[in-house]
Specification:
CATH topology: 2,3-Dihydroxybiphenyl 1,2-Dioxygenase, domain 1
Radius of gyration: 15 Å
Number of helices: 2
CATH architecture: Roll
Helix content: 10-25%
Strand order of the largest sheet: 1-4-3-2
Shape: globular
């Protein structure tokens, strides 16, 4: 019998400053923090049936392969109701971002450790 995947559960992101990262994922992106049972430093967030696990590490690796086009690197992607509202939120929070070069309603922002997050309109 072949293995069959049934759903995507979570993505883990390594961060160096848990407090800064929590502010980004909670305050800027507005994700809901959930309880976690593991003992090592970190934080878990939930969006729909999907989770993001922040794992604290003093030396995370965040090398961009394509520094000029953030969307051509490893990234998480979220759907937003309004790309203009997303832009306004990021500007207010002082976050640098890149608009998608493809022309579609999407942009890319880095978390405090340089992990890339895509925000796109459906």
């Amino acid at each position: 019998m072949a293995m069959q995947l049934t759903q995507f559960l979570h993505a883990a992101i390594v961060v160096s400053d848990l407090e800064k990262s929590e502010q980004f994922y909670e305050i800027v992106l507005g994700l809901k923090k959930i309880d976690r049972v593991l003992k090592f430093p970190g934080a878990w967030y939930e969006i729909g049936a999907f989770q993001i696990h922040l794992i604290a590490d003093s030396a995370p690796v965040s090398e961009l392969q394509q520094a000029e086009k953030w969307g051509r690197n490893r990234h998480l992607a979220f759907c937003v109701t309004s790309i203009e509202a997303a832009k306004a939120t990021l500007i207010q929070a002082g976050c640098d971002f890149q608009v998608s070069a493809s022309g579609r309603a999407a942009l890319f922002v880095k978390d405090p450790d340089g992990n890339i997050v895509e925000l796109g309109e459906a």
